[in-house]
Design goal:
binds S-adenosylmethionine, alpha/beta, Rossmann fold, 7-stranded mixed β-sheet, about 260 residues
């Protein structure tokens, strides 16, 4: 955490060499603390909402979504829920998050009655009464934050209806040196300073930088999903500086 006297410039140079150090932040607590400013922060990020909408469309949900039940896991303040709703305006959506602060922000917006929010950890969906079968599951910027993604991925596969898609939207690098360098440069020149300026905290944004470098490459993530028995894996990236850095990985439960 950032509560010591180390100057930012000193810390910056130290941290640049230490992305592999253990991640010790309380992710949910940090999101609680950032919640009130989160929408302003992502609003300042060109393409954040556009790219979520792109990923939701890549699920190829049928029709207007009428009769479908979708899960938005790690919904945060509702940006991904909104993207899902745009892709399937008639669907019923259950949106789940572990952070009460992020959910409180989400609930402030005006949602159709078909959208409901549930406070639960991804690891404890059944205990919270969140049960499938779902006709689609969207997880935007969630899986990378899970201490152990595999049990959750196994539950998600089991919760999908036959043929239904799981879409993971996240910072997952393509494995190219160039992408790692761009990610590090954008983090230290834009994301960490802006996050600190808008929320007064930097730990969450330093964690973001480090967690992306440590997480699966996009190909490894697709392989991981296939390891859970999911099929028809599709990978697509985003335009602009996020090319090779942010991806949608869509995989389906076998029909
Ligand atoms: C970066 S935010 C993304 C929010 C939203 N999906 C979006 O695209 O704007 C990640 C969210 O995942 C939630 N989260 C992290 N770990 C979680 C877990 N184990 N179970 C449920 N939610 C979790 C956090 O509370 C946070 O709201």
């Amino acid at each position: 955490m950032s509560g010591d006297a180390t100057s930012d410039s000193h810390r910056h140079s130290r941290v640049l060499h230490s992305y592999a150090e253990p991640v010790t932040i309380d992710v949910t607590g940090e999101f609680d603390a950032a919640a009130a400013r989160y929408d302003r922060l992502v609003g300042a990020s060109p393409g954040y909402h556009r790219n979520l909408a792109r990923s939701a469309r890549r699920m190829h949900l049928p029709g207007s979504g009428a009769g479908l039940h979708l899960l938005d896991l790690g919904c945060g303040t509702g940006a991904s829920t909104l993207a899902l709703l745009a892709a399937a305006p008639q669907a019923r959506i259950t949106a789940v998050d572990a952070s009460a602060g992020m959910l409180a922000q989400a609930r402030q917006a005006d949602w159709p009655a078909r959208v409901s929010f549930v406070h639960a950890r991804a690891e404890e969906l059944a205990a919270a009464g969140v049960r499938g079968p779902f006709d689609g599951i969207f997880a935007a910027y969630l899986v990378r934050n899970l201490p152990d993604p595999d049990p959750v991925l196994a539950e998600l596969r089991a919760a999908l209806a036959p043929g239904a898609p799981l879409a993971i939207h996240d910072y997952t690098l393509d494995g190219q040196v160039r992408s790692r360098a761009i990610w590090t440069a954008v983090c230290w020149t834009v994301i960490i300073p802006t996050g600190k300026m808008l929320t007064g905290r930097a730990a969450l944004y330093r964690y973001l930088w480090r967690s992306v470098l440590r997480f699966n490459t996009v190909d490894a993530l697709a392989t991981r999903l296939r390891g859970h028995g999911l099929v028809d894996t599709q990978i697509a990236t985003m335009p602009g500086w996020e090319r090779g850095i942010v991806h949608t990985v869509v995989a389906r439960r076998a029909a």
